[in-house]
Design goal:
362 residues, alpha/beta, Aspartate Aminotransferase, domain 2, Aspartate Aminotransferase, domain 1, 2 domains, seven-stranded mixed sheet, four-stranded antiparallel sheet, 13 strands, binds pyridoxal-5'-phosphate, pyridoxal phosphate binding, histidine biosynthesis, amino-acid biosynthesis, PyrdxlP-dep_Trfase_major
């Protein structure tokens, strides 16, 4: 396997080994450890946790969960880093690759706000390379992204595919092209938070080919577990080691690991696929209803569980929906989207309520 381009890592952290927790520093003696008195945990379970499941600090990277994700993505456990949602993965990437106050981060607006938030909190300059709006979908300008990354000396490029709020995918050959062009310059991150809804296969299939490629996935969207806070990065094994070092100790609580593992059983995954199918059908239905509505200017093609809609009078539409207790996301604060709303595809009942509120008598 080609190595990860080491010079992309923060110079000042190259010899940093991170916090050595009671779980990371197990003794290497011949006699198996049987009495654990090294972490100042209670010797007794809590009265609210009678079987003591949560008595001890968890494994920083719970191996059963890491293995389950590796299986799901047909990759090896050494490429998996799990944590508190993809949000934490974004933060770890910025932390591991950008010198504070130094190396920049390229984002492609309109896009997910957390990339710029993490960069700013770290003191990293954010370089915007706007997407091209062709009226039905949004497109990344590969040429411009590569040029901006090089001229800004950026260490990270964030792409969301399917994008939020664009709902468009970045074609895999474009991801591959960008990773190739920036192979010794920057890490290219493909955030696939909505990957389960997309028709294109995952960029995970390109990881072997591109050491500087990272794919983010989450249990927050299609899996229906946003409150669990579990996300993961699929990365080059050398980068995985570094990300784990800069991560806070014990990021995945014991009850969270248990529920996440249950979400990854074949039965639960099949149920998730069924739900995704239902969401796609409701999305098509919502498109048909909105298309016929007066004042709707454009509905972007969606590869996700939401629709990005432009309207003549967003205030009026918002008023109508609010009066019915229906909340959608106002996107008008984003550049180029001063007439746009983002509508999540909910349950059948919720979507019927939306149709009714919008004046569909059916
Ligand atoms: C919702 C969303 C996420 C999810 O973040 P989590 O921290 O995993 O909940 C990540 N990226 C994008 C583009 C999103 O829209």
């Amino acid at each position: 396997m080609t190595g990860f381009p080491e010079h992309l890592l923060r110079e000042d952290l190259r010899d940093f080994t991170g916090y050595s927790s009671a779980r990371t520093s197990a003794p290497g003696t011949a006699t198996p450890a049987r009495i654990w008195l090294n972490a100042n945990e209670s010797g007794h379970p809590s009265s609210v946790d009678v079987d003591g499941t949560s008595r001890r600090y968890p494994d920083p990277q719970p191996s059963a969960l890491v293995d389950a994700f590796a299986d799901l993505w047909a990759t090896t456990p050494d490429r998996v880093v799990v944590g508190r949602g993809s949000d934490e993965m974004i933060e770890l990437l910025v932390r591991a690759l950008c010198r504070p106050g130094g190396d920049g981060v390229v984002v492609t607006p309109p896009t997910f706000g957390m990339y710029a938030v993490s960069a700013r909190l770290h003191g990293s300059p954010v370089v915007d390379v706007p997407q091209v709006d062709d009226g039905l979908t949004w497109r990344i300008d590969t040429e411009a992204v590569a040029a901006a990354a090089v001229s800004a000396g950026a260490r990270l490029v964030f792409l969301a595919s399917p994008g939020n709020p664009t709902a468009s995918v970045v074609p895999l050959r474009q991801v591959s092209d960008l990773a190739e062009r920036l192979s010794d310059r920057a890490v290219v991150v493909v955030d696939e938070a909505y990957g389960e809804f997309a028709s294109q296969r995952s960029a995970v299939t390109l990881l072997e080919e591109h050491p500087n490629l990272v794919v983010l996935r989450t249990l927050s969207k299609a899996h229906g577990l946003a409150g669990l806070r579990v996300g993961l990065a699929l990365v080059h094994p050398d980068l995985a080691v570094v990300l784990r070092r800069v991560q806070a100790p014990y990021p995945v609580p014991v009850p969270v690991t248990e529920l996440a593992l249950r979400a990854l059983t074949p039965e639960a995954l099949e149920a998730t696929r069924q739900r995704v199918g239902g969401t796609l059908r409701l999305r098509d239905r919502a498109v048909r209803a909105l298309r016929d509505l007066d004042g709707v200017r454009a509905i972007y093609a969606s590869e996700a569980n939401f629709l990005l809609v432009r309207c003549d009078d967003a205030d009026r539409l918002l008023d109508v929906l609010t009066a019915d207790g229906i909340v959608v996301r106002d996107m008008r604060h984003l550049p180029g989207l001063d007439d746009a709303l983002r509508i999540t595809i909910g349950t059948d009942l919720e979507m019927t309520a939306l149709d009714r509120a919008l004046g569909d008598p059916s």
